[in-house]
Amino acid sequence: MKDIQNKTCIRFHWRERNSPSWVYIRRGRGFGCWSYVGRQGGGQLLNLQAPNCLYKGTVIHELMHAIGFFHEQSRPDRDAYVTVNWPNIRNRERYNFAKYDLNYVNTQGLR
């Protein structure tokens, strides 16, 4: 969190009792490193439950999802910049390459 705060205008705060939204970081033994993308409202789970989840880069990656960042390969304009080699992607991982819909994403007026 300090790395993100030091390099951006984003600030993290401790949750206050009446906070309408917060990020809950679950770590320990379990499965997966993941977070929902963007503010979900209420308690938002950021899951760090696998041996490789507690690396600094992984934690920052998942925090970036929690604050609203998608993967670059999911941008709606990605085909203008990259070629996805679909035969090299496992069927169960293809969802990671679905383009997000700008009508679904609240960009706060930014494009």
TrEMBL record:
Binds 1 zinc ion per subunit. It holds the Pfam family Astacin. GO terms for molecular function: metalloendopeptidase activity; zinc ion binding. Residues 1-111 form the Peptidase M12A domain. Its cofactor is Zn(2+). Zn(2+) binds at H61, H65, H71. GO terms for biological process: proteolysis. Keywords: Hydrolase, Metal-binding, Metalloprotease, Protease, Zinc. The keyword Metal-binding applies. The active site is at E62. It comes from Allacma fusca. It comes from the Eukaryota. This is Peptidase M12A domain-containing protein.
